[in-house]
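Quick one: co-fold with zinc ion.
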Amino acid sequence: MNENCLFCKIIAGEIPSARVYEDEICVAFNDISPQAPTHVLIVPREHFASLDKAEADHRETLGHLLLTTAQIARQKGFAEDGYRVVINTNADGGQTVFHLHVHLLGGRPFIFPPG
Ligand code: AMP
Ligand code: ZN
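Sure, here it is.
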């Protein structure tokens, strides 16, 4: 746990969140500022700052995050219609919280490329 990290505090239950899924590797909760009808963040329990800081040891965790994202999309009912998965990375990627997280956005169409 990183004492200065918002998502570590959410994972620890020190800051409330609307959880949609959790297991031994990750926690998923609704984004506080949703950009689509469904906007869920899938977050590893282990703190590492960004995809840029991922190492070979994180291989299983990273795979698990994506499989969990796809599972939540199916549960939400929009998997067949489609959805957007985003990992903002570092400043130019638009990352604001430096605990790696996957955005799952669904329930509307998305354009590409994003802004
Ligand atoms: P990023 O810009 O990729 O680092 O994404 C950080 C996301 O965290 C943003 O979409 C925020 O809306 C979201 N966020 C910030 N604070 C909270 C919070 N307390 N609970 C849930 N989501 C949050
Ligand atoms: Zn953290």
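If it helps, The chain has one domain: 6-106.
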